[in-house]
Amino acid sequence: MKALLTVAAALACSSAAHAQVLDSMPPADSGPRAPIGAVSPCVVQRIVDGDTIRCRDIGLVRFIGVDSPEPTQRPFGGIASAGLAAMLSPGDTVQLEPDVEERDRYRRILAYVWRDGSMLNWRMVRLGWAVVLTYRPNVQYEDQFVSAQAMAREERRGLWGIDAFVCPPVQRRRRAC
Predict the structure, then answer these.
(1) Catalytic residue (one of 46, 54, 56, 62)
(2) What are the boundaries of each domain within the chain?
(3) 153 is catalytic
(4) For position 164, what pLDDT does the model report?
(5) CA neighbor of 10 nearest in space, from 157, 175, 146, 125
(6) What per-residue confidence (pLDDT) applies to 18?
(7) Domain covering 2-173: architecture
(8) DSSP per position, 62-83
(9) Rounded distance between C-alpha atoms, residue 61 and residue 42, angstroms
(10) Which of 33, 46, 54, 70 is catalytic?
(11) Is 102 one of the catalytic residues?
C-alpha cells in the first residue's frame, strides 16, 4: 500500500513531479529509435487513458501492442493515465506509425505513437504504466515491448512497484491469475 501511495502522490503532483518520473527512465538504448514505416502527424486533443488518445481531426488513436488499466480500474487506471500525461499534453504534435491493421474493432486508429524521436508505446511499457498486449498481425515492435516489460517488472517500475499489481490487465480479463 505504501508503494501505491508513493506512486499516486508522485503522479498527482505538479509537472515537476512528472518530469522527475520521466528523468528516472533508463536510457532508451534498447527501445525503438525511429519509425520503420511512414508516419502521419496528429495534434493531441486529449488523453483518454494510458493507451488511447484523441487527435484533432482524426479521432481516437489506440496505442498498438500495449494495454493499460482502464480509468475505472482504480487506482491503476488513473496512475497509468497520469504516466502518459507526464509524457504528452493536449496540443502536442505526435507522429502516428501504422502497422498491418489500420483500425480495431471499435474503429479506433491503431498506431505506434512517436514524439521527439521516442516511441510512447514502448516508453509506457518500459516505465511500467502499460503491459504488452499483442494482436496479430500488428507485431512490428513486439520483441522490444516484451523486453521492456521484463525489465520494468524486474525493476518494479510504475505499476509493477505496487504489490497489488501482480496480474496484468489482460490476464485479469482472462482470469489467468
Answers:
(1) 62
(2) 2-173
(3) no
(4) 56
(5) 157
(6) 42
(7) Beta Barrel (2.40)
(8) EETTEE---TTSTTHHHHHHHH
(9) 9
(10) 70
(11) no
What pLDDT sits at residue 29? 55
Q: Read off the amino acid at residue 41.
A: P
pLDDT of residue 23: 47
Which residue stretches of 13-136 are H helix?
15-23, 76-85, 120-126
Helix, strand, coil shares, percent, the chain, to 5? 35, 25, 40
Going 60 to 61 to 64 to 69, the CA torsion angle's sign is: negative
| 108 assigned to active site | yes
Neighbours of 32 (CB within 10 A): 21
Inter-CA distances, 14 with 19, 76, 103, 130, Å: 9, 19, 35, 22
Which residues of the chain have a pLDDT value below 70? 1-30, 163-177
Q: Among candidates 2, 129, 3, 152, which has minimal Cα distance to 69?
A: 129
The pTM for the full model equals: 0.79
Number of residues written out for the chain: 177
